[in-house]
Input
Amino acid sequence: MTPAAQSLLREFDVSLTAVEQALAVVNAGLAHENADHLEVACQSLQDALLACTAARPQWLKLQPADPRLRARLEFVRSGIAHVREGMARRAAGVQRALQILLPSGPVATYGRGAASFASDRRSDASFTSLSA
Output
């Protein structure tokens, strides 16, 4: 293997290690349910993934069948799927809580429904102003 290829492989290995570490931090953030920590962790995971995917096509040309790196890529893929599933579960819980606090649909505070005051009279032009 040429020195350039070895350098490229090391660069990809470093970026893949950064993704694995960022994924571990995101999983820890999900476990502790700290929104601020989770937001920072997700941003660092996204940055690490962007750096890794930039190096991946060149790596595939050089080492298309390295089983160790393939196993690591599969681990990252399944970890990201796990994070996505965890986020979806938490989002569903938040949606249910919001539905309870802020029900959707035409709920009127005063009057018959969601229509504005005297909208039935405005539509047939029989609405008149009050005079003193």
Notes: The chain has four helices and no strands.
